[in-house]
Automatic annotation (TrEMBL):
Belongs to the aldehyde dehydrogenase family. Coiled coil: none annotated. It comes from Massilia eburnea. PROSITE patterns: ALDEHYDE_DEHYDR_GLU (PS00687). It holds the Pfam family Aldedh. PANTHER family: ALDEHYDE DEHYDROGENASE-RELATED (PTHR11699). InterPro entries: Ald_DH/histidinol_DH, Ald_DH_C, Ald_DH_CS_GLU, Ald_DH_N, Aldehyde_DH, Aldehyde_DH_dom. Keywords: Oxidoreductase. The lineage of its organism: Bacteria, Pseudomonadati, Pseudomonadota, Betaproteobacteria, Burkholderiales. This is Aldehyde dehydrogenase family protein.
């Protein structure tokens, strides 16, 4: 028996558009501007024009930013409860108008009504409810934090309303005001949302919505009055935004592309896995950043699984998105169809087998692409590496779990992953090894407002949802109190003459680089003289270069045992370093005093010992969370190390500054390439002897001395460095590393021209530092028999 048509009515949605003359201005300060220069949006299922929207100019964006700035004090003065009530009203109104939203979204985007009605809209309401809760609890649960200010938010077209909710709800809860831009293909539900804001009593200027293409996006990104940018979209534009914001001090979160692995082990429930795969790659026509677009299936069940999969593909129904029984709707725009077809053709040309259901007829008008399975592609083929963003699955096989991990991680992306096996022990062994922000075990594409979502590697940084998502819209108040970084003074008259020591036992001691647990001579065989505060020659350190950084990064990469070690074990090593530093405290104090002329040298050594204790204490207490989203199961949020972090240390407090940055990084399992204070590096080079006697495995901390600018540049451009921190007070240097970090989208933590009171735990400690040193992975574990 075949299905009959079950069309959802579009009458109300078309009437809503008609009432607005199918023409929209911008929503600024709670008012609609008259439509200016316009562009059209279309129904991708039949190509018909739906409405005209205004292309917001830089002047329009500036007006929206001004309105948002003006609204900020009033919005914050409402307090958590006041904001919670308004957000609750938004959630209720969204539910009341859910059908209109769902139909409008389907008309504008081409995704099926089943998805907009059953997935997008319930999740949108849930986001506003959940975040109304955070507004209510803000003071209690986020003490010592304030709202960032005016935030700019730019979203893509694949989940227009859901991405709006993911962006706007946490920003409002935290007390920010907003300039929001929907994607040019799909602006309509944002227009309806603006009306909901008016009805819910959102004060004027708190939410401003400007429409337009990338030029409007650029105007938001470039506006000086924006304090934070949140972007979801292509990795390419993410990179542009990272570069454009370098050195501006704007807070940034990026949710970018993916090429997520879907791993099926031989003992998996294969029928359930096929259904999971349908949700994973054919949901929203595969136009999903976390789509399970790479199937990795264990060789022993490959044929059986692919046979089942093809049979299921033959049953997928493609057609009018408003028909309630359709599985696959239209692609957002003909341009996407061309992109996808091009990639599939290239796979054919390379000799891959391309399977598409024979009975799948594409409608004559609109943009459509059939469900597609590609087999026989090499791991380096374009279809195996590029984000196709369409209903195209690439299948490969593996033999062992280790090979599955290797294949899963063979991508520049790291957004999501699925593991299918009935062996829970195997699943939980795989989960930490996969470099992705989400791991779904025996399930796929699950989302909830309580569980953070976001990427590893080039899939971006920052999280949306959960407690961690709230931090993206908050700033610690301690940041406001940071002093200007002191400019270090070079000694007036360096005394480079060698003065024989009065000490009869004196032997020349040359500080070397410290790489892979060994002292290393600098590759270039150059050294630089270090003089004391009084101009006296104190010694020499190696002049590190690119090659030294490369060696140090390689050594850090090899030291994976540190990341796998228990937190208890890492804490023990940090305590041991403290113990050995204390044993040589007087010597370290003397060295600090000689270099900097500080009268506080002993205090600095004391504080450094205490700081080591502090981070050792944290090492086994930075626990994750167990969420209970609305499913039968739990979601475990783990705080994981980022990988290899390059750290350019502050000039002031050469020992305490170094320890305050390196210790938290290694406490949570990272490996470090540290560039010590350029002015006073000897405190750090003295430390490697302490490390050698404290059971710190080789490669965990590597020290390269020399020019901070040059070494930072090399670290920031290095593709195997996962994060870079720069805190030496050089504003230009910080801007440069942020710009260079765009290449591999590494995480950055920079201090700009400001310093930090390194003695103060409020400024140099706490969860804020740990958050920079870690990334959250959410592992979804449904249960039931
Ligand atoms: P896109 O990244 O160009 O657009 C996303 C948003 O950014 C839109 O609102 C757009 O107007 C805005 N934008 C474009 N250029 C900008 C700029 N220079 N500055 C600021 N904002 C800018 O994505 P597009 O062109 O719509 O899709 C292209 C490809 O990107 C897709 O085929 C897919 O591979 C990928 N993509 C990934 C998404 C994800 O969620 N990971 C979402 C959308 C696209």
């Amino acid at each position: 028996m075949d299905y009959g048509p079950a069309p959802e009515s579009q009458k109300e949605a078309q009437a809503w558009l008609e009432q607005r003359s199918r023409k929209f201005g911008l929503f600024i300060d709670n008012e609609w501007t008259s439509p200016g220069e316009t562009f059209a949006c279309y129904n991708p299922a039949d190509g018909s024009q739906l409405a005209e929207l205004t292309q917001a100019s830089a002047v329009d964006v500036a007006r929206a930013v001004t309105a948002a700035r003006k609204a900020l004090p009033g919005w914050q003065a409402l307090g958590g409860h006041g904001r919670a009530k308004i957000m609750y009203a938004i959630a209720r109104l969204m539910q009341k108008h859910a059908r209109l939203f769902a139909v409008l979204e389907t008309l504008d985007n081409g995704k099926t009504i089943r998805e907009t009605r059953d997935a997008d809209l319930p999740l949108v309401a849930r986001h506003f409810y959940y975040h109304a809760g955070w507004a209510q609890l803000l003071d209690e649960e986020f003490p010592g934090h304030r709202a960032v200010g005016v935030v700019g938010q730019i979203v893509p077209w694949n989940f227009p309303l859901l991405m709006l909710a993911w962006k706007i709800a946490p920003a409002l809860a935290a007390g920010n005001t907003i300039v929001f831009k929907p994607a040019e293909f799909t602006p309509l539900t944002a227009m309806l949302f603006a009306e909901i804001c008016q009805q819910a009593g959102v004060p004027a200027g708190v939410v401003n919505i400007v429409t337009g293409d990338g030029r409007t996006g650029e105007a938001i990104v470039g506006h000086q009055g924006i304090d934070k940018l949140a972007f979801t979209g292509s990795t390419e534009v993410g990179r542009i935004i990272r570069e454009a914001t370098a050195g501006t001090g704007k807070k940034l979160s990026l949710e970018l592309g993916g090429k997520s692995p879907f791993i099926v082990f031989e003992d998996a429930d294969l029928d359930a896995a096929v259904e999971g795969l349908v949700d994973s790659i054919w949901f929203n026509q595969g136009q999903v950043c976390c789509a399970g677009s790479r199937l990795l299936v264990q060789e022993s069940v490959q044929d059986r699984f692919l046979k089942k999969l093809k049979a299921r593909m033959d049953n997928l129904r493609l057609g009018s998105p408003l028909d309630k029984s359709m599985d696959i709707g239209a692609l957002v725009d003909p341009i996407q169809k061309q992109r996808i077809a091009g990639l599939v053709d290239s796979a054919r040309a390379e000799g891959c087998e391309v399977y598409q259901p024979a009975g799948c007829e594409l409608p004559a008008t609109g943009s459509w692409f059939p469900p597609t399975l590609i087999t026989g592609a090499s791991t380096s083929a374009a279809v195996a590496q590029a984000e196709i963003f369409g209903p195209v699955l690439v299948a490969m096989s593996f033999r062992t779990p280790a090979e599955a991990v290797q294949l899963a991680n063979n991508t520049v992306y790291g957004l999501a992953s699925c593991v299918w096996t009935e062996n829970i022990s195997l699943a939980l062994d795989m989960a930490p090894q996969i470099k992705a922000g989400v791991v779904w075990i025996n399930t796929a594409n699950q989302f909830d407002a309580a569980c953070g979502f976001g990427g590893y590697k080039e899939s971006g940084y920052g999280r949306e949802g959960g407690r961690e998502g709230m931090f993206e819209y908050l700033v610690p108040v301690s940041e406001d109190a940071r002093p200007a970084a002191p400019s270090f003074k070079k000694p007036a008259k360096p005394d480079t003459e060698f003065t024989p020591s009065a000490d009869p036992f004196a032997v020349d001691r040359t500080a070397k680089l410290y790489i892979g647990g060994k002292q290393a001579r600098p590759d270039g065989a150059y050294s630089r003289a270090i003089h004391g505060a009084d101009g006296k020659f104190l010694g020499e350190v190696g002049e590190g270069n690119r090659k030294d950084i490369r060696n140090a990064v390689e050594a850090a990469h090899k030291a994976t045992g540190w990341t796998k070690a228990t937190a208890h074990n890492r804490a023990q090593v940090l305590y041991y370093i403290a113990e050995n530093l204390a044993a040589r405290g007087a010597e370290f104090a003397e060295r600090i005093a000689a270099q900097t002329g500080s009268k506080n040298a002993e205090k600095e050594v004391q504080a450094s010992i205490e700081r080591l204790f502090y981070w050792a204490a944290w090492a086994d207490k930075y626990d994750g969370l167990a969420h209970q989203p609305p499913m039968h199961g739990i979601t475990v949020a783990l705080n994981e190390a980022i990988g290899v972090i390059g750290i350019v240390c502050p000039n002031e407090n050469p020992l305490l500054g170094f320890i305050s940055l390196v210790a938290p990084a290694i406490a949570v399992g990272n490996r470090v390439v540290a560039v010590p204070s350029e002015a006073y590096p000897l405190s750090a080079t003295d430390l490697y002897q302490v490390f050698d006697t404290s059971d710190l495995p080789g490669g965990v901390v590597n020290i390269v001395t020399g020019s901070a600018d040059e070494l930072a540049r090399t670290l920031a451009s290095h593709f195997d460095v996962d994060a870079i921190w720069r805190h030496d007070g050089s504003a230009a240097g910080c801007a440069e590393v942020e710009k260079l970090s765009a290449g591999s989208l590494k995480r950055t933590w920079t201090g700009g021209a400001k310093g930090r009171d390194w003695f103060s735990t409020a400024q140099a400690g706490g969860r804020v530092v740990l958050a920079h040193a870690s990334q959250v992975k959410n592992i979804w574990i449904p249960y039931g028999v």
